[in-house]
């Protein structure tokens, strides 16, 4: 898999930033300045370093592909809501307007569906007045939707008709797959179109990217729900607080929220299988915990334990983004726990909390807001330079250009053998494995 970034041909326009900043290596980035992907040497031998696996660094270039004063940009937000979307939109508009003197910016309404004329969603003009205060609010002023990529020709036709030169796509893996296809089709048509992605997913599951925006806010807000669950659990005899958090295939929100609180006793994530019954199952460990401490807090990611529930393989449902719709592990666990202790004639009080949509709609926390603003700035630098078919990433705290094809090649997940997961086990005190064999 290549780390190379595609460029639109020609760099003939002098960047207006050259007149605003002193020319030095910190302010402007050369394409040959790279960030090593694997910075760890397994045997301490420099020959083990994979120097062919390096990211292109993000940042402003001295010479641009587009004339900033003539370029037309568009911003689209896709998929589920996520904290920080408005902050990214605002950053893209402000950077384009004030740093590059680029004043022709459109907002595409309701995701990729907004590029389908049949839907009737006209784009809106974006300027500093429109976006001035939107970072204070959750959600997205452009609206969002899943899907809309059934006929990619229609989307590219619309971009061509609107004379869009730079398309900023804000979304997760489904959005990036659509952006990659748009970039490929634009290249085949000979269109002068740069496609730049900004990684939006609270699940933090995009590969080759250190973190996606919205993730820090998600687990930070989730802490409030865990606090409530802990208070409820301690306030009753044999109290159990059960919190279900988002995490379809990756359990980073649940794991990080547990680390932030240190009041969670069991973290259940999709990457680590567990059993309910048997001497080493969750229910036996939960019973032992209640006998010993009289309360417990469980934090479960939405994609955990799917193998424990009955599935009709012929009736698997998918959402508009193509993701399998999971069974509700939260309600399932609640019922199994209550039945188990009822049959044992052990009194419990169980409180179930699902804050998923409260988290998704929250405005970003300050550190996430900083991250969103910088992602937007780096996206504009990339677009103006004619970089295309890429997503802005971060690796070892440096901003990078990641080919979209590389970013969507696999899903980022928790490694059950990592130091990170062992930290979660240390914080919760739960067994390393809750499997009976």
If you had to describe this structure to a student in words, what would you say it looks like?
This protein has 2 domains: 6-213 and 362-407, Rossmann fold (3-Layer(aba) Sandwich); 219-307 and 320-359 and 416-428, Phosphofructokinase domain (Rossmann fold, 3-Layer(aba) Sandwich). The relative contact order is 0.17. It has 12 helices and 17 strands. It has 437 residues and is α/β, with parallel strands linked by helices. Helix 1 packs across helix 10 (366-384) and helix 6 (252-261) packs across helix 12 (419-428). The strands form 4 sheets. It has a 9-stranded mixed beta sheet, with helices on both faces. Strand 16 (390-395) and strand 17 (398-403) form a beta hairpin. The model has no long low-confidence stretch (mean pLDDT 92). The chain has helices spanning 85-99, 128-131, 152-161, 173-189, 215-234, 252-261, 282-293, 329-343, 356-360, 366-384, 404-407, 419-428; strands at residues 6-7, 13-14, 34-36, 54-57, 63-64, 72-77, 104-108, 124-125, 166-171, 194-199, 239-245, 266-268, 295-301, 349-353, 387-388, 390-395, 398-403.
Q: Into which percentage range does the β-strand content fall?
A: 15-25%
Q: What is the CATH top level name of the largest domain?
A: Alpha Beta
What's the story with the biggest beta sheet?
9 strands, mixed
Query: What's the count of strands?
Result: 17
Quick overview of this protein structure:
This protein has 437 residues and is an alpha/beta fold. It has helices at 85-99, 128-131, 152-161, 173-189, 215-234, 252-261, 282-293, 329-343, 356-360, 366-384, 404-407, 419-428; strands at 6-7, 13-14, 34-36, 54-57, 63-64, 72-77, 104-108, 124-125, 166-171, 194-199, 239-245, 266-268, 295-301, 349-353, 387-388, 390-395, 398-403. The protein has 12 helices and 17 strands.
């Amino acid at each position: 898999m290549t780390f190379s970034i595609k460029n639109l041909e020609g760099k003939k326009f002098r960047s207006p930033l050259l007149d605003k900043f002193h020319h030095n290596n910190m302010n402007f980035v050369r394409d040959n300045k790279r960030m090593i992907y694997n910075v760890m040497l397994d045997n301490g031998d420099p020959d083990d370093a994979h120097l062919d696996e390096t990211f292109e660094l993000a940042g402003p270039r001295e010479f641009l592909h587009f004339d900033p004063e003539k370029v037309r940009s568009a911003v689209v937000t896709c998929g589920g809501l996520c904290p920080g979307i408005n902050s990214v939109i605002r950053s893209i508009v402000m950077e384009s307007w004030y740093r590059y003197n680029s004043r022709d910016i459109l907002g595409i309404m309701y995701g990729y569906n907004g590029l389908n004329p049949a839907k009737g969603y006209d784009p809106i003009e974006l300027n500093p007045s429109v976006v001035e205060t939107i970072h204070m609010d959750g959600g997205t002023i452009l609206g969002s939707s899943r899907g809309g990529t059934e006929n990619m020709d229609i989307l590219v036709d619309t971009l061509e008709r609107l004379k869009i030169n730079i398309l900023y796509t804000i979304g997760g893996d489904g959005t990036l797959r659509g952006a990659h296809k748009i970039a490929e089709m634009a290249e085949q048509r000979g269109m002068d179109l740069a496609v730049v992605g900004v990684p939006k997913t609270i699940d933090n599951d995009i590969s080759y990217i250190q973190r996606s925006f919205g993730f820090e806010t998600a687990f930070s807000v989730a802490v409030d729900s865990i606090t409530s669950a802990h208070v409820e659990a301690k306030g009753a005899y044999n109290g159990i607080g059960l919190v279900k958090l988002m995490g379809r295939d990756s359990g980073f929100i649940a794991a990080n929220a547990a680390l932030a609180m240190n009041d969670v006793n069991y973290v259940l994530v999709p990457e680590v299988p567990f059993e309910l019954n048997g001497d080493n199952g969750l229910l036996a460990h939960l019973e032992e915990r209640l006998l010993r401490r009289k309360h417990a807090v469980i934090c479960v990611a939405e994609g955990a334990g799917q193998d424990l529930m009955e599935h009709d393989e012929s009736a698997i449902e998918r959402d508009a983004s193509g993701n399998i719709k999971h069974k509700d592990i939260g309600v399932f666990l609640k019922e199994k726990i209550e039945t188990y202790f009822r049959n044992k004639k052990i009194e419990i009080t169980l409180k179930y909390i699902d804050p998923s949509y409260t988290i998704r709609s929250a405005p970003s926390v300050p550190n996430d807001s900083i991250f969103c603003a910088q992602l937007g700035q780096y996206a504009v630098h990339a677009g103006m330079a004619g970089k295309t078919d890429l997503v802005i990433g971060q690796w070892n705290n440096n901003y990078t250009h990641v080919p979209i094809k590389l970013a969507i090649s696999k899903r980022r997940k928790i490694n059950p053998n990592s130091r990170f997961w062992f930290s979660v086990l240390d914080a919760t005190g739960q067994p390393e494995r809750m499997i009976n064999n």
